C-alpha cells in the first residue's frame, strides 16, 4: 500500500491532485521547477483549504491536509522514499521526455510513475522512464474534489499488477476508478470532451455565432449547466491552449490554429485564464451563463 506520494507540477491541476491526495491521508511532496513556481503552488494550495472546506464541510480536515503537503524545487528531495510519482507538468512532449530522463536517475527503485497527460499516451515516454513496466497514466479532471474520476491506462509494457495498485490508490483518494483497457489519446473522458470543445471553437472562429449564443444553444438543447466556452474556463485556457495547438498542427487544421492564436493573444497573454484568474471567456464568480435570465424556458417569465 502506498504511503508517500510525489506530485510533479504545481499548476492548477497538480496542486489539486496534491491536495486531494493529502485530504485522504497521504503524505505528499509537491515538486516544481524553481522557487517562484513553488511559491505559486503554495499559494494555490492555501486557497484550496477554503474550497475543500466549502465542499466537504470539514475545515479541520482541510487544514490538516494542507499540513501534509510539503513543497520543493529539489527533485531528488521530492522523490525520497516515494511510492508513487504523479506527473502533471506542461503538455509538451520534449518537456515530459526530459523530465522522465532526469527523474529516472534519482527515483527509488520502488517508485511507480504515473502521468496525468491529457492527450499523450504512456508509450510516448516509456523509453525515458527506466522502468517501463512501472509506468502508466492516471488522469484526473479539473476540480477533482467534485469531478472525481481517476482514469488508469497502461501501455503494452505496463505490468498489470501496477495498474491494479494505482486503481486501488485512485479509489482510496475518493476517485471513481476507471480502467482504460486500451491505450488511447484522451482516455475516455477527453475522447468525448475534445470533439465537443472543438466544435464550439470552430463555430466561433468561423463567425457562425458568438460565444454566449453557442453556449446558450447547447445548454437549452441538452439541459447541461454550461456550454463549451464555460467548460473551457473551468479547464483553464492555458491548459487547453497546448492541446488545441498540438491538435491543430497534427491535423493541419486552420480553424483550430486560428482559435489557438486568438486564445493566446486575446486571453492568455492578458492573464485571463478562466475561473482560476477570475476571467476568461466569462467573468467570475458570477458568469452570465449562470444568471437566471440566460435561458428562459417555456412557462417562465424573463
What would you note in describing this structure?
It comes from Aerococcus suis. Pathway: Lipid metabolism; fatty acid beta-oxidation; Lipid metabolism; butanoate metabolism. Residues 4-183 form the 3-hydroxyacyl-CoA dehydrogenase NAD binding domain. The record marks 139 as: Important for catalytic activity. This protein has 2 domains: 4-180, 3-Layer(aba) Sandwich (Rossmann fold), CATH 3.40.50.720; 193-290, N-(1-d-carboxylethyl)-l-norvaline Dehydrogenase, domain 2 (Orthogonal Bundle). It is built from 12 helices and 8 strands. The protein has helices at residues 12-23, 35-56, 59-67, 75-78, 93-106, 126-129, 160-172, 189-205, 211-222, 228-235, 237-251, 254-266, and strands spanning 4-8, 27-31, 69-72, 84-87, 112-115, 135-139, 149-153, 176-180.
